[in-house]
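Progress note, sequence design subtask.
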């Protein structure tokens, strides 16, 4: 697939890295020579210096032969115009744009992004996606990750195994025997720097992160089984009243009447904007790195502090300070992937990465076959994929034990109509089933082939 990525920032570089690693023909456009040089030095991609919305720049990038344009520059208007030019002048089949200004996305303007007006096929709003991610973390505080699949019927959980976890040193096959009615499958394990798909004889160890696919109605039971019985927070402090912070606060006001929320915002005009937009949330204009401000916001008594500013260092340090003051749990938004390794050392409970969220959204539209959902795991080391089985799929019509599934892939759940099924050796996948699976990066192409539309598609 020939893909043009407009923007060489953190999101653009993450998308280009993932697509290039899968042997796609990738070209990156950016008006910063320094960023373009970094891309050329570190990735196997073509590069073009220039403005992505200019027709001559898109032409130099190969837009006439491109299958897809992904516009993720810092400017919404550049992203929109790049997609318009790609459509009008070069007839690029698929256009994806990142749009951050929420007014473009208001329901009253829903006809704006149509083929007759501004032909953008997929719109990505990082603020909304990250806001949803944060809300899931708040609702399931025991999970490092909580991602819905199959229209919410199935959830993918990342769970840290601590000293009090009752299922450590237990072979996975024994878990099935002990809890036969539990609709959950351990599909992946992170152990130190190693991420792998376990087999039925493997045991989990203290310090592991278990990646579990489960029926959503059983998430609380699964978390409890893995030693996590934390309750959803009633007192929450949010650091940062930007788009994401305001979105999370608004969601909490509308869906959690008993939750008390306070926001700390350093910028006075932004604090005033938040106060106008929110009704029950208390807004404090101050520095989240000031201990007195944190105490005034009640961080010392809060169950959760969520740091959502645009500054990674402020987010990390405010979480560390809140923990020292007595806050039970902290969540930090980070953009720099190098900081992810600091989570354990700094005592931060969870990180939220807008780049990873955006990359996962893009991958759903890049994947071939009937792929309905994708989430990247551990910065692209693996993926959770939801695919619809067609009659042409090699998995349909025979028991899974005969399907010769690769060792780097494990099916976690099957949704048949409204029923969630746990895969067993004698399970037969039927056409129309939605299959949720965990696959290591080098097995993703094979997964696509399993769910192909027809052999000609590839």
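Output:
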């Amino acid at each position: 697939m020939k893909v043009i990525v407009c923007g060489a920032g953190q999101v653009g570089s993450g998308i280009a890295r993932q697509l290039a690693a899968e042997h796609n023909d990738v070209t990156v456009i950016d008006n910063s020579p320094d960023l373009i040089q970094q891309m050329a030095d570190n990735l196997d991609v073509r590069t073009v210096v220039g403005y992505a919305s200019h027709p001559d720049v898109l032409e130099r990038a190969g837009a006439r032969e491109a299958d897809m344009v992904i516009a993720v520059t810092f400017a919404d208007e550049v992203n929109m115009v790049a997609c318009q030019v790609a459509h009008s002048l070069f007839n690029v089949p698929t256009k994806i744009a990142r749009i951050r200004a929420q007014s473009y996305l208001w329901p009253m303007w829903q006809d704006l992004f149509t083929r007759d007006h501004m032909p953008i096929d997929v719109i990505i709003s990082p603020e909304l996606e990250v806001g949803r991610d944060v809300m899931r973390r708040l609702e399931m505080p025991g999970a490092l990750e909580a991602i819905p699949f199959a229209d919410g019927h199935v959830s993918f959980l990342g769970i840290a195994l601590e000293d009090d976890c009752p299922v450590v040193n237990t072979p996975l096959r024994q878990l099935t025997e002990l809890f036969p009615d539990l609709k959950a499958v351990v599909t992946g394990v992170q152990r130190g720097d190693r991420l792998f798909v376990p087999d039925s004889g493997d045991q989990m160890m203290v310090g592991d992160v278990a990646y579990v696919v489960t029926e959503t109605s059983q998430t609380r039971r699964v978390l409890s089984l893995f030693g996590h019985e934390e309750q959803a927070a009633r007192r929450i402090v949010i650091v940062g009243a930007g788009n994401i912070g305001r979105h999370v606060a608004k969601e909490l006001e509308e869906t959690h009447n008993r939750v008390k929320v306070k926001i700390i915002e350093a910028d006075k005009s932004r604090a005033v904007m938040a106060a106008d937009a929110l009704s029950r949330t208390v807004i404090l204009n101050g520095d989240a790195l000031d201990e007195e401000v944190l105490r005034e916001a009640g961080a010392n008594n809060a169950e959760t502090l969520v740091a959502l500013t645009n500054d990674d260092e402020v987010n990390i340090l405010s979480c560390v300070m809140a923990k020292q003051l007595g806050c039970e749990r902290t969540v930090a938004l980070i953009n720099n992937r190098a900081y992810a390794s600091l989570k354990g050392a700094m005592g931060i409970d969870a990180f939220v990465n807008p780049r990873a969220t955006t990359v996962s959204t893009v991958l759903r539209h890049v994947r071939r076959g009937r792929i309905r959902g994708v989430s990247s795991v551990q910065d692209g080391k693996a993926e959770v994929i939801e695919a619809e089985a067609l009659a042409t799929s090699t998995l349909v019509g025979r028991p899974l034990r005969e399907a010769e599934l690769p060792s780097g892939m494990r099916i976690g759940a099957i949704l048949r109509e409204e029923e969630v099924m746990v895969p067993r050796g004698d399970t037969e996948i039927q056409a129309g089933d939605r299959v949720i699976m965990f696959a290591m990066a080098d097995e993703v192409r094979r997964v696509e082939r399993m769910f192909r539309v027809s052999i000609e598609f590839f």
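The chain has 14 helices and 22 strands. Work on this subtask will continue into the next period as scheduled.
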